[in-house]
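PROTOCOL LOG
Step 1. Enter all chains and additional molecules of the complex.
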Amino acid sequence: MTRFVIPLVLFIALVVFLAIGLRHDPHEVPSPLINKPAPAFQLAQLREPSKRFSAEEMRGKVWLLNVWASWCITCRDEHPLLLEYARSKAVPIYGLNYKDKREDALSWLGELGDPYVLSVSDLDGRVGIDYGVYGAPETYLIDRNGVIRFKQVGPVTPDIWEQKILPLAKELNK
Amino acid sequence: MKPAVAEFARHKQRNAKQNRLRNFALPLMVFVLRGLMNPKMKRTALLLAIFSCLSFSSVAKEAQPSAADPVLEERVMKLSKELRCLVCQNETLADSRADLAEDLRGQIREQMKAGKSDKEIIAYLTDRYGKFILYNPPVDPTTYLLWFGPFILLLAGLALLFRYLKQRKELITEQPLSADEHRRAEALLKTIPGKKVA
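Step 2. Run joint prediction.
Step 3. Record the structure below.
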């Protein structure tokens, strides 16, 4: 009897491990920045480069920082969703235009619409490195004290918006 | 001192290129040109020409002097080999051609120039990208299974093996023949011609 049971149990264990492995996205690396202060930055605004914007100005507000670029293909998929989220006015969305050309970024926003309260230009990607960006789009939910509470690598899908970001933002806004 | 080293390295590279040109490329070109004029040799010469283009183009790509300071560059590459590229995760920062890898190598270079130690630079990167960026996983609670799992499996395998061997030993205790069996065996043996029972 055990002659058949042991291989069967081993086989089932293997299947379970493989099934768990399939559900893991190896591209999603846990960020060490969760529950840590959002790295400070002061960058030129995309639309008005003479004006600067710093993360510090957002103290006291719950906000989203979305890392995007006109060369980023997934950003294009995410864009209509961002427009929709911005229209709901649940959380203000700020853009970090990552390693992009200003003209390209502006024409991209002109063509597809602008979901951002404002975007800042991270031309050399230094701020991106500070935020641990490794694949745009990436989105950070930052609380009133300037602490990163959630990070999404890849597009903010409606599921993530409704199940993760909205509830968390509501709680943080209390 | 450092500029002199760089100058020397560049010089060596240029010399090597010139030698390659003199030793291989020129005789080959002569051979190919001659072959093209000779209709019998045309095909071989053409093939040779194509292959030599392929191989020389690859030769030209390698070993570009990427910075003025080869000592620093070597340090950057050495540290980059210990770090993972987050875009193509099975590659090290040194091997990856991803944009981000290039930026991170630039960061490493900049910080080394500023006099930071390897340890400080690794801390800078793990603060931003987490331990995942270390190509050699560190031994800590999250990686115990990775480091010690194989040994646990080995010990479990050995335990199973010993148990099995012990059981088998118990099974094969010798059983002496009964008097009846003895007689039958003798009778059988007698039927074999030329064999005498002791």
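Step 4. Note key features.
The interface with chain B takes residues 26-27, 29-33, 99, 124-125, 129-135 of chain A (CB under 8 Å).
The CA atoms of residues 2 and 8 of chain A lie 9 Å apart.
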